[in-house]
Amino acid sequence: MEAFYVILSIVTIIWITKFAFVNNKNLPPTPFPCVPIIGHLYLVKSPLYRALGKLSNRHGPMLMLRFGTRRVLLVSSPEAVEECLTTNDVTFANRPHLLAGKHLGYGYTTLFWSSYGDHWRNLRRIASLELLSAHRLQTLNSIRAKEVRLLAKKVYRKVVTDEMVEMKSMFFELMLNVMMMMIAGKRYYGDHEVDVEAARQFKEIVMETFVVMETTNVSDYLPWWKWLGGRELEKRMVALRGKRDGFMQGLLEEHRNRKKPAVLTTKDGCTEATVKEMEQKNLIEVLLKLQETEPQYYKDEVIKGLMQVKMKPRGETIVLGAVARAAAARKTYQSRLRPRAT
Q1: Are 116 and 93 contacting, i.e. CB atoms less than 8 angstroms apart?
Q2: In the CATH hierarchy, which top-level class contains the domain 124-261+268-332?
Q3: Which UniProt key words apply to this protein (predicted)?
């Protein structure tokens, strides 16, 4: 225990000395006090956006915070945001190297975690032109329409039998079904599951991903925390990485093993109706087609990383928005049924 206090004292002295002699004239103002070692972490409260909003209202539109060993620039004015994200967008383009990016982002090589550079630009080009373009999303509109019809039928069956309808979970399942139909041509929620065991694995992965990503990793801001035994979250990330990687690799192998159709060529040696075929394919089929043309770049890790971008759990805002719109529609419908006062 004495050794721990000695190390803590040394770190504190180094911390104070560093900030006492470093010239910070070009940095934005920093709220006082900045506690040694933890910095401004003591100001972090839930919900985070409200805590940061109070700081901005109290100290100004641009602040430099320190979350442990990491510097955080807090910007709240539209002019400053435009300056950061438009005028100096390249300066702020890099992603922080957090533990989640190491274990769940294939060593910071996916589109979400990769730093700005040639690799990131190429991934963005693939995502915007080959996978997520407006034309491709329009060709996959039938998937969304079909899933919405299935949801409407499910809601109707519950309403007819006077069952309570929990719309949040239904919209969440709708979003995941649409996403996986676009990625692999499979649905894992509802009454039309293609594979019960695969559906069970996918649901476990989704729930574990939400839990892991919503948990703050203290060692991202205080690296010495893991030396004190704070590795539980990292172990969960490693286990989740194995499950996700195995699941996605299984989808790739399944698509590879499917019988390939005969290829017809034109006089110039180009395949006929290639564009039409690509439009009808799901995400995995498109990426495997690209892998045949450039195998040195479209490796399985790159393909799984692009799949992971669409599988990333970011649908809470979408689901809440859908629930709010459904509630507003219900309120409007009830107001129309209510008899008017005479």
Answers
A1: yes
A2: mainly alpha
A3: Heme, Iron, Metal-binding, Monooxygenase, Oxidoreductase
Measure the CA–CA gap between 174 and 172, rounded to whole angstroms: 5
Q: Which residues pair with 63 in a beta bridge?
A: 74
What is the C-alpha separation between 201 and 250, in angstroms, rounded?
Answer: 12
How many residues can be counted in the chain?
342
3 state DSSP class of 313 = coil
**E-strand stretches of the chain:** 62-67, 70-75
Domain residue extents for the chain: 2-92, 124-261+268-332
Q: Which residues pair with 265 in a beta bridge?
A: 271
C-alpha distances out from residue 124 to 108, 306, 309, Å? 15, 10, 11
Phi, psi (deg, nearest 5) at residue 84:
-75, -45
3-class secondary structure, 111 = coil
Contacts of 323 (CB under 8 A, 6+ apart): 167, 168, 171
Phi, psi (5° rounding) for residue 48? -65, -40
pLDDT at 265: 46
Under 8 Å CB-to-CB from 311, ≥6 apart: which residues? 179, 183, 209, 244
Weakly modelled stretches of the chain, pLDDT under 50: 23, 262-279, 319-320, 323, 333, 342
- Compute the Cα dihedral for 319, 325, 327, 333 and give only its sign: negative
Please tell me the distance from the alpha carbon of residue 159 to that of residue 297, in angstroms, as a whole number: 51
